[in-house]
Specification:
alpha+beta; six-stranded antiparallel beta sheet
């Protein structure tokens, strides 16, 4: 029974002192990687260094008689970012970090006694040491019956493996369902342009192999990739479609890309599924589309089941939780349920990037059976990460073991065919009611903050453009392309900041171009819609009443629009200098102003409620003063005016800042105390701006160093905070300091009528492998903490009790986090311009601000950076303080623009206020209000207009009702794709459509079709 020939001891390499010697057991490897050396690896240093291995390889004399019935293969496996096999001076095979193995058949001349000169040229990764993991010559029988017993050693290994799992030697029940696969990251250690080429090669290779191997089935993900092929490579796409129609090429889709799933807002993650599912249903109608394929994303938000299920997804598939560094994930097959009760079936798949090794396949099958209780396992052979897919060598190895009695049976088929019988087990499966937290890659929310900033600004502009189009009945035909730009950049190695610098350099013009187009589309729609409403009398002028009117000469009309349906609250903002007048129900009111040092002036807009329009007039400063004097008008009082007072009896540089809603003590230690509206202190000590060393993790840009708190670094503040503005509309201080070679500046600001204290940290960041954080010591210990996540809210105990809770020492929050105290839940919220990495204990809240990894991007995070957040006292808890709505106000500015002067004689610029969509009320958050695809009716500019999709989420544990208002007709409930649904819990009956209150259960996400115009109107009946 011939055994494989181990080549590891036979390779020769150049020695440090000159000459050649054995490569195995080198001194460098023994000293620096003893764990690898103990496993028999050939090792050399990281940093792109080359290792050249040589070997003269004759056929062993005892093997020569086997030549007529055997095939010999050179089986290699490496860890190198470039690998080349040369034989007799010719390059035979190439690989890299992703194509990490080969099984090259040795030529006939080797059997005849010709010695082969083998050379391996291997280059180590930049981030890790290189290794030749294994090298050997294996024999395979030409006759599957194996009369020479060449497979006996492997068969014995399989039997021993089963005995270790307390089985007898036979394979027993259950087969391996085999589906070829090629995981293809849209960008990572290569730019996007390389991805398109890799996709072409991968798809063409899979299609060619289907012609050679009749059993091969192949599955691949990503609607964005299919859309690119459809547009740019139609001939290849046509071949793919024919294979799909034959049932052998399976689309494994779901979201538009394999996106990050913890850094996205609810709107973005929902749109990922809407775009992906809509494309799949339209383009591949012969397939059902009830699965979401996300094998490699870095964790999954707790609300994902609700978002996915709303678009028709029934199955969620990933492998990533197998990467948990501390606690193995307990389930392989389970039901994953959101807080609202929506759920999907979840499958932890086999590893991606595997091959046809029978021992690895059997080991996985036995593990799967033990963990799940299900007999049949799924196997996904194929080179991955950079594409590739199954190779002929893999398929030949699979075919060799297909009918071997020592191996489990194989069945080639689709993922859908594998999942179908599992669905009947749903009632017996365990239920997971939490996020799928990856116990690794905790630095992703903090790395490359520029990508997070691009993401949130473009998402806001696109959502506002959709909202404007829905409000004024104007379709947005180009919106889908810009949404797809955003969704593409949310890929799980782009948005987290874990790619090479070329990826971000090439993304920059994409971000900027999409932002410009979205802003133009929003502004154009709002200007036209508001002008048309004014012309048609929709905004009747207020020309008389008890308040003096502004002089009309030289007046410039402006509109201020709140583009979120928020509860009533005044807003303070900066506008150009001048004399400002606000249209009111009883005439016009002059607004009090405060000059801003940087230009312009601060104004307060009273109590904006819902999506509301306010009309202003501006007189230039020179004319405005005369006009004001002429009218004798008194400025409207400031609500919640800011007061700054020196603290008596203490240090001369300590100040009390407040506006009746929140107050702070500012002194030599910065923000030394924060008080709520009742004067209750929130902090146990001054805010702590901290700096630590962050070095030593293998996945540099992905991971925070677990021991970073053991390596503090100095943060030096220079002097005391200096006051630049002192109220009554805005008070602002600046505090300067230094972190190593990086100057830092902290701006603190309190606005009139605002319940939070805003903090902005700016720095010219020049550090490497460091972490900046804000630590907030709590005056009263918290018992719980909460934060928003895609699809809802997560809540955690402040004191970790279990190993799984202790492993979650850094999590992602999208826009806010809050400490929750005992009793009624008093606490402190941090509003984020995020996403950000955050942490919480009973004694403190923490926010990670900046990092400085060097791989795969050597200059990541360096340059000018600006981080913005706010502190919100929450008497009564985060829900009572409306933390989600306050975070929206912090992140989303009002739309303020000058308008065209009215052309009609005697017409005014606008009335007091126009409510375009009402406030949703307590706990409710708008996810989207956007036009649906055209349904046949035409607008006055020739474009087709459809209905409107309203998506709202309840962020609380109580049932909530709301109304779309008298200007909207509710056509009925629908799913997230806009498809009508039967009435059910939380939705009005179709016979009760119109302005009836809509309802949402606790934490529920709901969708409705609307039509602009009241029930019974011509506009509504036209649908």
């Amino acid at each position: 029974m011939p055994r494989p020939l181990d080549l590891q001891p036979l390779w020769q390499a150049d020695q440090p002192g000159g000459g050649s010697g054995p490569a195995l057991g080198g001194e460098w490897g023994l000293r620096h990687r003893p764990d690898w050396a103990a496993r028999g690896l050939i090792i050399w240093p990281r940093g792109g260094q080359w290792c050249r291995l040589r070997l003269r390889c004759p056929c062993p004399e005892g093997w020569v008689p086997l030549a007529a019935g055997a095939r010999a293969r050179l089986a290699l496996r490496w860890w190198a970012d470039s690998a080349e096999l040369w034989v007799d001076g010719q390059r035979i095979h190439s690989g890299d970090l992703f194509d990490t193995a080969c099984r090259w058949p040795l030529p006939e001349r080797w059997w005849r006694g010709e010695v082969l000169d083998l050379e391996l040229r291997l280059r180590s990764p930049l981030h890790d040491d290189g290794a030749l993991i294994s090298s050997r010559i294996e024999l395979e029988p030409l006759d599957p019956a194996d009369p020479l017993g060449l497979l006996a050693a492997t068969a014995a290994e399989l039997r021993e493996l089963r005995r270790e799992h307390r089985r007898d030697g036979a394979p027993g029940e259950g087969v391996l369902q085999v589906l070829g696969h090629a995981h293809l990251d849209l960008a990572w250690l290569w730019p996007v342009a390389d991805t398109w080429q890799a996709a072409e090669r991968t798809f063409a290779s899979a299609l060619d192999l289907m012609e050679r191997f009749e059993t091969l089935h192949f599955g691949h993900s990503t609607p964005a990739l299919y859309a690119w092929l459809e547009r740019h490579r139609p001939a290849l796409f046509a071949r793919v479609r024919r294979a799909m129609q034959a049932g052998r090429f399976e689309p494994l889709n779901g979201p538009w890309v394999e996106s990050d799933c913890v850094l996205l807002s609810t709107t973005s993650l929902l749109r990922q599924f809407q775009e992906g599912q809509a494309y799949s249903l339209r383009t591949f109608p012969e397939w059902s589309h009830r699965l979401a394929w996300l094998p490699d994303s870095f964790g999954f938000a707790a609300g994902l089941p609700a978002l996915a299920a709303a678009t028709g997804v029934r199955w969620f598939c990933t492998h990533k939780l197998a990467w948990n560094a501390t606690n193995p994930f307990p389930h392989r097959l389970f039901r994953w349920r959101s807080r609202c009760g929506a759920e999907v079936l979840a499958l932890m798949t086999a590893p991606i990037g595997t091959d046809g090794d029978p021992v690895a396949m059997e080991r996985y099958r036995l593990q799967w059976q033990r963990a799940s209780g299900c007999a049949d396992a799924l196997w996904l052979p194929g080179v991955g990460d950079h594409g590739g897919g199954p190779t002929a060598e893999m398929l030949e190895q699979l075919a060799l073991w297909q009918d071997q009695p020592a191996a489990a049976g194989q069945r080639h088929g689709t993922l859908r065919a594998y999942l179908e019988p599992l669905e009947s087990l749903a009632g017996q499966l365990p239920v997971w009611r939490d996020e799928l937290y990856l116990e690794l890659h905790r630095g992703c929310p903090t790395s490359r903050p520029d990508q997070k900033r691009h993401n949130r600004s473009l998402e806001r502009l696109l959502r506002e453009a959709d909202l404007a189009a829905a409000l004024f009945g104007r379709p947005a035909p180009a919106a889908s392309d810009d949404w797809r730009t955003l969704l593409f950049q949310q890929f799980h190695d782009i948005l987290p900041g874990t790619a090479i610098p070329e990826v971000f350099e090439q993304a920059e013009p994409q971000w900027r171009g999409a932002r410009r187009r979205a802003a133009r589309r929003r502004d154009r729609t709002l200007r036209r819609g508001l002008a048309a409403a004014a012309t048609s009398g929709g905004t009747a002028a207020a020309t008389s009443g008890g308040t003096a009117a502004a002089p009309a000469s030289a007046a410039e009309p402006w509109c201020v629009v709140q583009l979120q349906p928020l509860p009533a609250q005044s807003r303070t903002l900066r506008l150009p200098a001048g004399d400002w007048w606000l249209a009111a129900a009883d005439g016009e009111r002059r607004l009090a102003g405060q000059p801003a040092p940087g230009g312009g002036q601060w104004l307060q807009i009273p109590a904006l409620e819902g999506v509301e329009v306010r009309h202003l007039r501006r007189h230039p400063a020179s004319a405005g003063s005369g006009g004001a004097a002429a009218t004798g008008a008194v400025a409207a009082p400031v609500v919640g005016a800011v007061r700054l007072e020196r603290v008596t009896g203490g240090e001369p540089d300590r100040w009390r800042l407040g506006n009746g809603l929140v107050s702070a003590l500012i002194g030599p230690a910065g923000v030394e105390q924060l008080f709520d509206r009742d004067g209750m202190p929130q902090l146990a000590g001054p805010l702590a701006w901290c700096r630590w060393r962050d070095r030593g993790e293998f996945w540099d840009a992905w991971d925070l160093a677990a021991d970073y708190r053991e390596h503090p670094l100095a943060w030096i503040w220079e002097g005391v905070p200096q006051w630049l503005e002192t109220g009554p509309l805005c008070a602002r201080f600046v505090w300067r300091g230094r972190c190593g070679q990086s100057p830092v500046r902290l701006d603190g600001r309190l606005l009139a009528g605002s319940p939070w204290l805003e903090l902005v940290l700016g720095t010219q960041w020049r550090q490497r492998h460091e972490l900046l954080r804000l630590e907030i010591p709590l005056a009263d210990p918290a018992c719980r903490w909460a934060a928003d996540t895609a699809g809802g809210v997560i809540e955690r105990p402040a004191t970790a009790r279990t190993a799984r809770e202790r492993a979650r020492w850094e999590v992602s929050a999208v826009s806010w986090m809050a400490a929750v105290g005992p009793g009624r839940g008093d606490g402190l919220a941090v509003l984020l311009d995020g996403p950000q990495g955050v942490s919480a204990t009973a004694e403190r809240l923490g926010v990670s601000l900046l990092r400085a990894p060097t791989w795969p991007d050597p200059g990541a995070d360096n340059g000018w950076q600006r981080q913005r957040l706010a502190l919100l006292p929450c008497p009564g808890g985060w829900r009572a303080a409306a933390a989600p709505q306050q975070a929206t106000r912090l992140r989303e500015p009002l739309w303020c623009r000058p308008m065209e002067p009215p052309s009609a004689a005697g017409a005014e610029a606008g009335g007091a206020a126009d409510t375009l969509f009402p406030s949703l009320g307590e706990d409710l958050q708008l996810v989207a209000l956007r036009p649906l695809p055209a349904e046949g009716s035409a607008t006055d500019d020739g474009a087709e207009a459809g209905g409107v999709l309203l998506s709202v989420q309840n962020l609380g544990p109580c049932r909530r009702r709301f109304s779309a208002g008298p200007d909207w007709t509710v056509l009925g409930p629908c799913d997230a794709l806009g498809q009508p649904q039967a009435a059910g819990e939380g939705s009005p009956h179709p016979d009760e459509q119109g302005t009836q209150p809509l309802a949402l259960g606790p934490w529920q996400l709901g969708h409705w079709r609307l039509r602009r115009g009241p029930a019974g109107s011509a506009a509504a009946q036209s649908s």
